[in-house]
Amino acid sequence: MSEFILITGRTSKQGAALHKGKDSAEYRLATGFVSMNHEDREHLGVEAGRRVRVRTAFGETELELKEGKLPPGMIFVPMGPAANVLIGAETQGTGMPDSKGLKAEVEPFTTSPPKLGGIEGGLV
Amino acid sequence: MKIENVVCPFCGCLCDDIVVEVEDSRITAVKNACASGRSLFLNAHTQAVQPKVNGEEVDWPQAIDAAARILNDAASPLIYGLSSTASEAQRKAIALADLLGATIDSTSSVCHGPTTIGIQNQGEPTCTLGEVKHRADLLIFWGCNPAEAHQRHFSRYSALAKGKLTPNGRKDRTVVVVDVRPTASSRRADIFLQVRPGCDFEVLAALRALLKGQHLDVDEVGGVGVVQLQDLVERMKSCRFGMIFFGMGVTQTGGKHLNVAELLTLVAELNAYTRFTTMPMRGHGNVAGADSTLTWQTGYPFAVNFARGYPQYNPGEFTAVDVLARGEADAALIIASDPVAHFPRQAAQRLSQIPTIVLDPEINLTAQVARVMLPTAIYGVSAAGTAYRMDNVPLPLKKVVESPRPTDEQVLDWMIERVKTCLA
């Protein structure tokens, strides 16, 4: 298990896929992953394309692991149903939840075979 | 049939040079749009669809009746969304909230709501995108990634655009990106300053101190070297026309509106040296219109409550995430947005526990938990209307294909009339 700072945000693929339907394979693939840099992935000991469990103080979900150009210790999850599970509803009187800069843990996930995308656990 | 000068309704850029080809009321080709805009036009659902109540298809009067009863029976209804619909429909949604004594909030609250709070505290030195295109020689993108989220921003309005005083486009501009990670945008910048997560306020405060000529007794602030910050301050002071575009990297991290207020203060202070302006990168096509319409109707831009018979404003109290997460909303009308896909789980779950009504062209994730689904036309595709660009310039959205579906404005009108009948 390793500790990271979680950033969520838009991607061009997420933006294009949402018009194909939130149930589409494109949308699941565009929003159902977590990325970290090459060194962090090697340290975690999980191959890209495998699933990992991501956990914050507010929830946890299983996501496909990807490599991305990120600083050490940072993970990125595209905005969408998977990211929502990891974000708390406290807004400190602003209306805006903390969607960036959250503490998160990542650990290998080995109890089920890899699946396409991954937003299960993300829906109500 | 080829239709030119179409406004894409997807994001706050509202690109107005789209060419759409239509055959037999079907969009067959889209030119000039980015990947997101093209996908919006080519996947637009415009065919006739019946509304649904509890999963069963019903006719429109039955659906409106069911929706009106839900809203009338609720003690504390929430109306939320608004940013992907036209301002004509936003106006009706506000009238309905007034009638019901409801809370009304837009997606601004989970986007640039903190920006609005910052502007209310500090004022906003701003301009139009036309001025940026024609004049800006220093462009700073802070906590935003237009290469992914506003894909034609660079070419139409900023980094690459050729203007009257910037005839050589990119060569006439210095582009700076400030972010916590390298992005597609930072790779196109001349200067990239990588800030430690959560340290935007410190870096902005350091820039203000350096601008005042103060000495910083440290080597770096928030992960950025003081030498780099001093270099940026000199560029800011000496440019002809500077611009800071900023995004969720500033509003969604700790500090939120305080980060924005610090950024606005820095920009205001820079005007002692040169012309300097700033602008939030607004996400949805008409989210700026939601702020404008709510403001001219109620005096407040988001987080408005009509329970006392007059509008009250209080972010944190009347914002949608808070109202849902605290379990205060006992019914919800969601217009042109998908909070189940984008809200923290605790807030999204509430929408499946209370009667929810959805007005949307798509069967999105919120529609899947809704009691009443009202499928409407798409503004900018199958309905005409008004949308406000991120610089608050209103643009006319065209109807490029016919659709038998009613508009959000029509449906809200029907709902207002039915609610009035119920109340009578």
Helix content of chain B: 25-40%
- Mass-distribution shape of chain B: globular
- Strand segment tally of chain B: 21
N-C termini distance of chain B: 49 Å
The total strand number of chain A stands at: 6
Average pLDDT figure of chain A? 86
Our measurement of the CA-to-CA distance between the termini of chain A, rounded to an integer number of angstroms, reads 27 Å
Low-confidence segments of chain B = none
Helix content of chain A: 10-25%
Percent range for β-strand residues of chain A: 25-35%
What order do the strands of the largest sheet of chain B run in, or round the barrel if closed?
Answer: 5-4-19-18-17-6-7-15-16
Radius of gyration of chain B: 22 Å
Strand order of the largest sheet of chain A: 2-4-3-6-1-5
* Structural class based on helices, strands and sheet pairing of chain B: alpha/beta
Biggest interface in this structure? A-B, 44 and 67 residues
Counting copies of identical and different chains, the oligomeric state is: heterodimer
Low-confidence stretches of chain A: 116-124
Number of helices of chain B: 17
